[in-house]
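Re: the multi-chain job from yesterday

Posting the exact lines I submitted so nobody has to dig through the queue logs.
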Amino acid sequence: GGKQRSIASFFAVQ
Amino acid sequence: MLEARLVQGSMLRKVVDAVKDLVSDANIDVSSSGFSLQAMDTSHVSLIAMHLRADAFEHFRCDRPMSMGMSLANLAKVLKCAGSDDIVTLKANDDGDTVTFMFESPKEDRVSDFELKLMDIDSEHLGIPDTDYCATVTMPAGEYARICKDLSSIGDTVVISATKDGVKFTTSGDVGTANVTVRQNTTADKKEDQTIIDLKEPVALTFALRYLTSFAKATPLATHVTLSMTRELPVMVEYAIQDMGHLRFYLAPKIED
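And the result, structure tokens for all chains:
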């Protein structure tokens, strides 16, 4: 099914 | 201090019911622009972003921005005590450790208030950039919920591929495989049955079905849901909260091992 990425890896912490 | 009076108080309950299984504790941020909530689910795979505009409220006063940390399960318990047609008013003092919810029946013959304890929650705020999406599909919210439910009985992950022929949802599992294709339909008699597909470039992404299914708990909020996809980026699943704001879910795609 593929590897699940974290959502935080797409959006920078403000 | 904060005072906010929402005539359609049931909207709050629908929002909280849609997110409480993904997020246990969250900050509700209040400012002169309205109410907002941003939170990742406990596995940090999806992100919830909700905004209710100040002008959605019949009366709105927020003297200075505040963050109200709360258990969404407890908030859901409180909101469950409101009648479905009740007007809801929130009140909180600056630096207070509680928020008060007042529920008024439409006939003004019953008034109740509930004080909810607030908590300190450390949360990271993520910056969500504006994105030019390759494909955007706006479909009946019930149809989206049905596709998620049907495919979940077959497999754990779904490939969503948008081409000029439509948007195809594909899954496979021990039982076999399943495909559901949604095509543009702007000629349906009822507007709530219409599907609109805006395709700039073909795109295909793989997602965990359990999250997409969980997002469908927002179905009571809106007639339609919008899925926006771009290559190698999270899908955005958006429910409009009438003309008052939105509830958006972002889900990170799965990638090849």
